[in-house]
Amino acid sequence: MEIKKPNSFEVSDKAHADLFNDMVKVLLENDQGLLEQLIGHIDDTKPHASEEEKKKWNESQLYKITGDDGKHLISVSADKNIYDEIKDKGTCTFIASPGVEDSPAPSNAYLRGIQTVGQNNIGTGFAVDTSGYAYYFFYNSTHVSITWTQLPRTVDKDKWNGSQLIKITNDTGGVRVSVGTTESLLDKITQAGKAFGTFYSPAGVQDNPSALSARGFYHFTSADSNNMGTFGWVIAVDYRNNVFTNYLDLNLGWQGWRRLLSAADEEVKWNKVELPQLDNGWKIYNSVDGIPHTVQYSKDALGVVEIIGSITGGKVGFDSVAFTLKEGFRPIQSTHFIGVASSIGKSSTPQIHRTSIGTDGKVCVQYCSNDLNPNEFITFGFRFRTK
Predict the structure, then answer these.
(1) For the whole prediction, is pTM greater than 0.70?
(2) Which is deepest, 152, 158, 171, 296, by most CB within 10 Å?
């Protein structure tokens, strides 16, 4: 565009003409500058902003999530807490100084994180402290504080991966195998296969080590193609604190329950036989110094019964019952014993008696070699195994 220049004013009053012509000259210079800028803009080869681009800019994020320098938006000092500082904010970054009350970080560590918010006073986020621990957090409108959860580190996962992964109990700490009342304890734990575990078996279960309920451990170190245990052991404890063991060998089968003995098993309870338990005229024998030889019997942990003591004055004979042993203290089969009898009247020649003990527990002094004083002194010192 060419700007036309107007003619100069020429009048007889030169001073006024020059003033007017100078004003026109300034206007022309301004127009020339504007023209040059307009032409330069038209000739600019760089693309101008399109409507689409302007729309994008208009719809861009207008809320800051960091500071102007790209660092955190919110700084929580040691005398404040994170929850109060971020609960009313939107998505934002933050830093918490060491010692902040609700920081999950160690007391000497800073915490940096980011929060995301979808609704008022409902937030979630992630944070990492300067000691290397990471956390996620959340809170909602009914909360008065932040709930933090520490995330596992590589060292934690390595520790877990190297730990025992097979359960020995159920998820609540109970036993892994519970034996039903109609099942076999040994069959049920064998079905666990190659494993270490715990079990419970109620009283009366088949193959139970005790007449009482029992709890224990089992460990099979190998299994067959059907995942049945083939070599292993089991330890059971009944509720009277008796301990039993058993062992499974693929070639020999179960070896049978064996009870472990303790110091407590060495202590036995003696059952005294006194009147009116003595029968057929028998009484407890008293020595010359007046000390009674009380008849007593006991049973040890191996099931061996021992009878001690002495009697006098009763009837000797095959059907003469001196006393009767209680159930649980009776022999496997009827048996006979030879004991010491009185030698009075026999010139101090040693005398004997023969006593029988039946499976019904009846103790009978059947014969005495001292035919003059057969019932003067009959002493017991017998041992036998019970049923």
Answers:
(1) no
(2) 296
